[in-house]
């Protein structure tokens, strides 16, 4: 779900793919655990984009 975006930037936008927020958060934390940096994650809904995750250093 996030691999293509992460190869280009640590700030990514994904489309709403009808998975739970817990699943997305587990994916983010799992990738960070193996050393992949994710600073921001935005989710694209039908006509709006919402911030889902932002690291502490970015706040």
Description:
This protein is of the alpha+beta class and 59 residues long. The protein has one domain (3-58). 29% of the residues lie in helices and 27% in strands. The protein has helices at 3-6, 21-33; strands at 11-15, 40-44, 49-54. Strand 2 (40-44) and strand 3 form a beta hairpin. 5% of the residues are buried.
The global form is globular
Strand order of the biggest β-sheet: 1-2-3
Computed CA radius of gyration, to the nearest angstrom: 11 Å
Number of contiguous helices: 2
Structural class: alpha+beta
Low-confidence sequence ranges:
none
Report the end-to-end length measured between terminal Cα atoms: 24 Å
**Quaternary organisation of the protein chains:** single chain
Number of domains: 1
Helix content class: 25-40%
Largest sheet: number of strands, sense, barrel closure: 3 strands, mixed
Measured by DSSP, the beta-strand proportion falls in 25-35%
The number of distinct β-strands equals 3
SSE series:
HEHEE
Integer average pLDDT: 87
Helices and strands in order, then pairings?
Elements: H1 3-6, E1 11-15, H2 21-33, E2 40-44, E3 49-54
Parallel strand pairs: 1-2
Antiparallel strand pairs: 2-3
